[in-house]
Amino acid sequence: MTVHEDIVTSLRSKSVTRIIGHPTNAAVDLLQEELAKIAATVKTTLIEEGNKFGHLTVIVPEDDYKEIIKNRRWTYHEPTHPGYYDASITANMPEVEAKAKEAEHKEKLRLYQVFLGVEQALREKIEGAVDYQHIAALDEEYVGYSGSTPLDMIEHIRKGCCKITNADREDLDKEFRKEWDQSDNITTYFRQLELIEKKMKRWKMEVTEGAKVVRAVGAMYASELFDEKEMMTWENKTDNQKTWAAVKKHFGDLYQDKKRYTEAKAKKTGFGSIQNVEETKTEMIQDDGELREFFDGLEDAVRMDKEHINQMASTNEAMVKLTQQLTAQLAVANSTVETVLKQNAELVALLAKHGISAGKAAAEVPPPDKEKKKRRKCTHCKKWTIHKDEECYTLEANKDKRPSWWK
Fold it and tell me: Interior CA angle at 367 toward 361 and 368, to 5°?
């Protein structure tokens, strides 16, 4: 397997986000960023600062790379094939020098093959990330996308599919003017402003370094994190001193100092909080006799309340147990009542089946055998009873003898 093939194969394991449907500016920006991170992993000496940023120039515009390497005079020259042999090697050249040149030329050949492999791998990833219709115009007969660089493909997608509307520009302007969210580190906020500035320039929106400085300083005021002295130190700088780099250093250093102080204070407070409370109480008692009495009385009250609470808790526990016992007994009683009612209903149903009502059955059914010896059926009231016929209360002659409950 060649060096070119090795690079293509190794980069195929890197994934990018698939763009579903019509590409948007945000989706294309994300794809380009993901491809840039992949290209940066493959280092090279064919491109300035390539030992740090790899093949980043394959996928990012030249002006952006100039800012990254901090060299505005740099110009991108696409690597070319160095030839299979080094023509500078002559027959009269010392062997050691000739071998050194051969090794150097061999490395150039290898690096060029690496460059070609990175380009091919990124083209394949773009091809797989968007629908064919969005890059069909770049698909040439016989050579496919080989005639286009990865950056050409990204710009083609952006220009052909991502029309920038006035609403898009207004939204980006709002992002630029948004206040600093202090849940983010100040460095993150500065970086976000830089990225938005680049995007605004790409969208042909007017933005200067001065405007970026004014926006950032305004956010520092709005944060209320910095005091008057710190803000005036900035304001007292000359206009030439109020650069973007100066903004990041001035407020970045202050932010880091405040962060370290806050963390140290929190750590100290956390370890000494209990001791500080006790020391403060002791000092207050020593300084004022009335406060001593107050604290003593307060401690007695707390102790008494605690004892009362314990008693209440004990009583409450006993009440809970008693309630549980009564509840269990009530459940048994309810079960017994339900059983009796069920049996009674069955009995009434059985009597009704034989044409006997419950009331009539109670009057006519003779008592047990042991009661028959003492009771007899009265000829007047027709009930089983112990009174004699002539003593029956139903007789008019016995009306004066009737008890109050008799009807």
Answer: 130
**Choice between 308 and 165, residue whose per-residue pLDDT is larger:** 165
Judge whether 102 and 86 are in contact, CB under 8 Å. yes
In tens, the pLDDT along 233-264 reads: 999 999 999 999 999 999 999 999 999 988 88
**In terms of Cα–Cα distance, which of 336, 335, 334, 358 is closest to 346?**
358
Sign of the dihedral through C-alpha 238, 244, 249, 252:
positive
* This model's pTM is above 0.70: no
How high is the pLDDT of residue 203? 85
Task: State which amino acid sits at residue 396.
Answer: E
pLDDT (average), residues 206-233? 94
Angle 227-230-234 (CA atoms, 0-180°, nearest 5)?
A: 135
Joined together, the tokens standing for residue 349 give 């149903």
Cα–Cα distance measured from residue 189 to residue 222, given in angstroms and rounded to the nearest whole number: 14
Contacts of 400 (CB under 8 A, 6+ apart): none
pLDDT at 78: 93
User: For residue 140, what are the β-bridge partners?
Assistant: 144
DSSP-assigned states of every residue in 388-402: -GGG-TTSGGGGGG-
Assign 384 to helix, strand or coil.
strand
CB 11 within 8 A of CB 36: no
Strands 384-385 and 376-377: antiparallel
Residue boundaries of the structural domains of the chain? 3-161, 166-262, 288-365, 369-401
- Residues 122-137: tens digit of each pLDDT: 999 999 999 999 999 9
Phi/psi at 85 (5° precision): -135, 150
Which of 37-51, 252-266, 309-323 comes out lowest in average pLDDT?
A: 309-323
Secondary structure element (H or E) that encloses residue 376, with its range: strand 376-377
Give the number of residues written for the chain: 407
